[in-house]
Design goal:
This protein is of the alpha+beta class. The protein contains two helices and 16 strands.
Amino acid sequence: MPTRTIRTLLAAATAVVCVEAQAQLPSPSCLKPGTAEVLLQVGQVSVVRGNAVALFVGNCVNRQEHIVTGHDSYAKFKVSDGSTFEVFPDSQVIFHDNATVSYKDLLNVVIGRIKVFIQHLNGPNYNSVTTPTAVISVRGTIFDVVVEDDDGTTTVSVDEGQVAVRNLAAGGGQPVLNPGDSIRVYRTQPLRGQVIDHSGAARAAAQELEDTMRILLGRGSGGVPGIGVPGGAGGGAQGDKGKNTGGSGTGSSTGGSAPPSGPKPGGGS
């Protein structure tokens, strides 16, 4: 074979190898202060930027942007301090990540269910989550927040650590919840310490919903091949002691109006 032909074939082969190697390199992360990156995504998940824009793994949302999940949909996000949060089906959440003097205003839950894992390996990490009726103040913990209806009825359940809950609309005390505790906040009823449910019933109900979603995803119903169980091995920070006990769930939107539907995956940003 002529020397020139051999050189041409070697150059072409080298170019192909280089292109394939570049294609295998992971894309640079968009995560930075003031953003939240999608770690896992199932079904119809979108962010409102004038119009609804589909979100996929590796995309980021910015401060003040509105996250929407459709029916049988789910997403897990990571913020720059290593904390993560999960958004369950039929939910609307506003990502804040606003730093103040003493805490970070992380999320506002409009409707539906979220689960938060606060990273605190470097010490106390003061955060808050708000709903139409409640402010949930945390330092380092794992907890669920469900906004059930248009009136803002809110249930807070704690897996690990402690959270303090305050009623924005009716005042009252600021009960502190410990692991296994839950509390329901009504717009017109002031909070008192004795309204804390220590039985773990709300947490058990949430866990049952999470287990149901795990089974559905394991059978490939509405799931994405290869992602396993949401809340499992997907990267990102864990809560207290590095433990991630809250895989996924079906969310909650009992009563209340349905959130606006985002676009179907396939034509996203």
